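Section 4.2 – Deliverable D4.2 (structural model, holo form)

The reporting period included a commitment to supply a predicted holo structure for the target in complex with 3-iodo-tyrosine. Inputs used:
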Amino acid sequence: MEIEDEIYINGYKHLRYQPADEPLTEEIVTTSQSIYRQMSSRRSVRDFSDRPVSKQVIENLLLAAGTAPSGANKQPWTFCAVSSPEIKKQIRKAAEEEERKAYDSKMPPDWLKDLAPLGTNWEKPFLEIAPWLIIVFKKSYDLDENGNKRNNYYVQESTGLACGFLIQSIHRCGLVTLTHTPSPMNFLSKILQRPENEKPFLLLPVGYPAYITYVPDIHRKCINQTTVWFE
Ligand code: IYR
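Output (structure tokens):
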């Protein structure tokens, strides 16, 4: 039987999916172990070096992020990559204003208690020191060529997946990041002049870690706290 390289389903072209190399069963065990080992060394780092990172690297990381699956392949995200010191300064100033209010009066005591082991506070020097800030916007709809609204689907999930891909890509190339979520973060739309259909989702500073920095001694749950098996 001849295997077609492409077929049509409901009139739409489908290409044959062929994985690069069929892995051996034993290989998958060792590969999955090394992926886990590599991924588990990722930490959110809050102190950055000001050592530059090239635009080419950031572009590759964003290309990698954009390979995430998304609802109906709408790719409902915009990545704003900022290295301009003036814009970083504006972002830091506005974020710290919001964070100061949040830490001083908005976050309830339980929340502050949960954050205590992380050692965070309203000050966010990394917003100026890290060579790049990537601000991820989610798009609840797109505009077609006639200016009509076209809905996107699972926007939260899709954008979250793209951020996960981005975080892993940053880690895999030896750089660090953290997920910064100033609240509210409308100021990012203003500073970056984003259109009405884009809402800020996550801010990720990207760069090398500071030469000396510390991360909290916190641990990931073990597998039986997170997984239920049905065999
Ligand atoms: N957005 C604040 C507070 C904060 C909230 C959570 I949940 C964290 O895991 C860490 C921080 C900040 O960025 O400091």
